[in-house]
UniProtKB/TrEMBL annotation:
Family matches, as SUPFAM superfamilies: NAD(P)-binding Rossmann-fold domains (SSF51735)
InterPro entries for the chain: Ergot_Alk_Oxidoreductase, NAD(P)-bd_dom_sf, NmrA-like
Name listed for the protein in its UniProt record: NmrA family transcriptional regulator
NmrA-like domain location: 2-269
Organism: Corallococcus carmarthensis
Taxonomic superkingdom: Bacteria
Length: 291
């Protein structure tokens, strides 16, 4: 069995690749920058260099693959974020059909089944493109990533946790390694058939106040939780270098997630609950960046 992965120099697919190699699977990684792959993996993986924007490259690089791990890389400068996302998905669909790839695992998000949630809704459209192009698919409707906090290291060093969501409302939160592990399990299994949707929810639902409490306890410093008003979100994203289309998509997602009655469609179950706690993430991954 040969498994193709995109995004393998990133968080989720990087972890999945590590697991697949450990399991002895034949893998091909579609990457723009092979030097970013860990040296320990580089010689054990077929590396194909190119961009997902190049449909011919995606089709060529996935030849003879039995399964594909697909995700939509975030592109901050996309002029039309939805069109860009769907262009990439169509490149995946072309490769799936030309190479008759049987199985696809797609890293999606909770909320992807609804409209009006910016790029999360675009992920829902990608789900449909992939489901139409391959006989067996699973979409992993993931919780928000703990790693998102890496963009807030400077504020955290100053004892401030900014949140775009209501600070007392609990949301699922997952470490990307858990998502990578779930993806690897699906990719290594060649017995499942049909189209599946799975939540990936981390160890527990937490509010921003819960996060601040855990950060205080683990880091041993005070942490003040502060909500960023919704009207400031779009401007903050533009200042971070996002195109207006990408900023609108992110702002739309946060506004929808912040609604009082918003809940992921997929309920938390023992199957969607994954092992890494926020406390262990802070100890092992975040705290070293705050020193
Ligand atoms: N953040 C969240 O809370 C959250 C929640 C649910 C779902 N998701 C989804 O999870 C997915 C995976 O996230 P992640 O954290 O693993 O992503 P990541 O760490 O940002 O990795 C993205 C990867 O895509 C590669 N890439 C970017 N543009 C590319 C292109 N044009 N051609 C080929 N490769 C390209 C990057 O490689 P180089 O830049 O090195 O080339 C990198 O390896 C995303 O699609 C996101 O939508 C995120």
């Amino acid at each position: 069995m040969k498994i193709a992965l995109v995004g393998a120099t990133g968080n989720v697919a990087g972890r999945a690749l590590e697991k697949l190699v450990q399991a002895g699977a034949r893998t091909v990684a579609l990457v723009r920058h092979p030097e970013k792959l860990p040296e320990s993996l580089r010689s054990r993986v077929q590396v194909e260099q190119g961009s997902l924007e190049d449909g011919a490259f995606v089709a060529r690089a996935t030849r003879a693959a039995d399964a594909l791990l697909w995700l939509t890389p975030t592109t901050f400068d996309a002029r039309d974020f939805r069109a860009h996302t769907l262009d990439l998905a169509r490149n995946a669909a072309r490769a799936l059909q030309e190479n008759t790839i049987q199985r696809v695992v797609f890293v999606s998000s909770h909320g992807a089944d609804r409209s009006g949630l910016g790029h999360v809704s675009f992920a829902g459209e990608v789900e449909q493109v992939l489901e139409a192009a391959a006989p067996h698919t699973v979409v992993l409707r993931s919780a928000g990533f703990m790693e998102n906090l890496f963009t807030s290291v400077e504020a955290l060093k100053h004892g401030q946790l900014f949140t775009l969501l209501p600070p007392d409302k609990k949301y699922p939160l997952v470490a990307t390694r858990d998502v990578g592990d779930v993806a690897a399990r699906w990719l290594l299994d060649s017995t499942w058939t049909g189209h599946h949707v799975r939540g990936v929810h981390g160890a527990e639902d937490l509010s921003a106040h819960d996060l601040a409490g855990i950060l205080e306890r683990v880091l041993g410093t005070p942490m003040r939780c502060q909500q960023v008003p919704p009207e400031a979100i779009r401007d903050a994203f533009l200042k971070r270098g996002m195109s207006p289309s990408v900023a609108d998509a992110y702002a739309g997602m946060f506004k929808a997630f912040a609604q009082k009655d918003y809940r992921p469609t997929e309920p938390r179950t023992p199957e969607t609950t994954t092992p890494t706690t926020f406390e262990s993430f802070v100890r092992e991954r975040l705290a070293p960046r705050l020193r």
